[in-house]
Amino acid sequence: MRAVLNRLYSMAERDDKGVMERAYASAAGLSAPPTPAEASALCAEALLPVDPKIGRLLHLLVRTLRPRNPVEFGASYGASAIQIAAALRDNGSGHLTTSELDGGKVRKTRENLAEAGLADLVTVLEGDARDTLGALTEPVDFILLDGWKELYLPVLKVLEPLMAPGAVIVSDNLSMLPADYLERIRDGRLGYVSLDLPLGDGVEVTTWTGIRDE
Asked: What PANTHER family would the database entry show (predicted)?
């Protein structure tokens, strides 16, 4: 597991800056903001792993909370999925479902999970998370949101009916998140309790109490 993560972080440090600079330049030439599919294509070669400290946070939270049905939006190359799945393995229970739009990244995630010895603990769904995660039926008790930022709120709304009381949501890239998403997860009337943490470029950790006061 450590060898796979070290390789992914080394590749990201070497390649991601150039890939993202080209992606931003291409997006600037579009007549409208890129759609999720267009953004996914522009960033297809970027690994975009979670910050190592956030990876450790994910592992710590899963070990502590012992979720049975964690869900991830935005697998990329699988760095965060490896951290979560390793914690599930150490817990002795639980199965991660992760979603990724880009088919090439889906293949890489599956390969990396297999190399890390964790493939049996993760289901990797290919496609738009609003559809793939929307088809889930089991209660969800842990959520990592780390995909296209404009989809955080739509994906959260898809998962809300499945969230068990006490479910924890980790929202990465806090500095980039839309205001309407942050307003929702910080709204106590909707049953949310939330805290921002200064890890990476910011991360929000939220719990849903299951008690709404609308």
From this structure: PUTATIVE (AFU_ORTHOLOGUE AFUA_6G01830)-RELATED
CATH of domain 52-208: 3.40.50.150
Distance between CA 83 and CA 73 in Å, rounded? 14
The three-class DSSP label of residue 113 is helix
CA distances, 13 to each of 5, 33, 38, 193 (Å): 12, 27, 23, 34
Indicate the residue type of 211. Answer: I
Q: Determine the Cα–Cα distance for residues 19 and 156; give it in Å rounded to an integer.
A: 28
Distance CA 27, CA 29 (A): 5
Q: pLDDT tens, 88-106?
A: 999 999 999 999 999 999 9
Residue 14 CB neighbours (<10 A): 10
CB atoms within 10 A of CB 168: 19
The pTM of the full predicted model, rounded to 2 decimals, is 0.92
